[in-house]
TrEMBL record:
Protein name per its UniProtKB record: TetR family transcriptional regulator
Alphabetical list of PANTHER family matching this protein: HTH-TYPE TRANSCRIPTIONAL REGULATOR RUTR, MYCOFACTOCIN BIOSYNTHESIS TRANSCRIPTIONAL REGULATOR MFTR-RELATED
Record's keyword terms, sorted: DNA-binding, Transcription, Transcription regulation
Region (Disordered): 1-29
């Protein structure tokens, strides 16, 4: 059973706490559903790392997750679709941090960069397993069109959810076109950063890490400055407030 799904930046482990954009607490039913989806996603990611997508079936994933095949298909359309919650985790965390940011705290590019550095850093006391999963999945996606399509779809959905967050940060009267363009550019900057990082053996922290590469991409695209260019050399785009 295959699909052609249609990329949030991944990273830290997904959570089942508050809804990323609204901050509302999910119901017990929603939390149970999210927990089941996450268990299936982790099983799929583990099997993909062990056997590759071609060597894994939906039934294998259901068996590893301890659920019936019908339960698997209740939540996911294909074996590749099953890893979407893991691929979306970093984007969910990034939007949650941006949703909690004060609109007047700093210029928008700085707010976006600060949030992405936090979202794509390994929390203290964690092993960074979510990043290792992401790297393996993005490497597998390079040779699996269906898995790559899931990655693209996740990023597209992340971009759409980022639009109202950016609009709030820019304030009333912001140009809708500028808002949408900013959401698209920011999402693609992080997507490219993660793909570039995953293709290397760079560490999880420090130079070459997901947070560092993503911050460089954001800075370049949103302010027109490359890493190493002194502040003020190129004026950042005017913010619409």
């Amino acid at each position: 059973m295959t699909t052609q799904p249609t990329p949030v930046p991944p990273g830290p482990e997904p959570t089942t706490g508050t809804t990323p954009t609204t901050g509302t607490t999910p119901s017990l039913t929603e939390r149970r559903k999210a927990a089941t989806q996450l268990e299936i996603a982790r099983a799929a990611a583990a099997l993909f790392r062990e056997h590759g997508p071609d060597g894994t079936t939906a039934e294998d994933i259901a068996r590893r997750a301890g659920v019936a095949p019908r339960t698997f298909y209740r939540y996911f359309r294909s074996k590749q679709d099953a890893v979407a919650p893991l691929l979306a985790a970093g984007g969910d965390r990034w939007r949650a941090l941006l949703a909690a940011a004060r609109p007047d705290a700093a210029p928008l590019p700085e707010t976006l960069e600060r949030a992405v550095r936090e979202a794509l850093s390994v929390p203290e006391g964690h092993t960074g397993e979510g990043f290792h999963q992401t790297r393996a999945l993005l490497r597998a996606a390079a040779g699996d069109p269906a898995l790559r399509a899931v990655w693209y779809r996740v990023n597209r959905e992340s971009e759409e959810r980022l639009v109202p967050v950016v609009a709030r940060l820019l304030g009333a009267g912001a140009d809708p076109l500028y808002v949408r363009l900013t959401a698209a550019v920011a999402t693609d900057a992080i997507r490219v950063a993660l793909e570039s990082w995953a293709a290397t053996d760079a560490p999880l922290e420090g130079p070459g890490s997901p947070a560092e590469v993503a911050a460089r991409c954001l800075r370049h695209l949103l302010t027109g400055r490359t890493a190493g260019t002194t502040a003020g050399t190129t004026e950042p785009p005017a913010q619409h407030r």
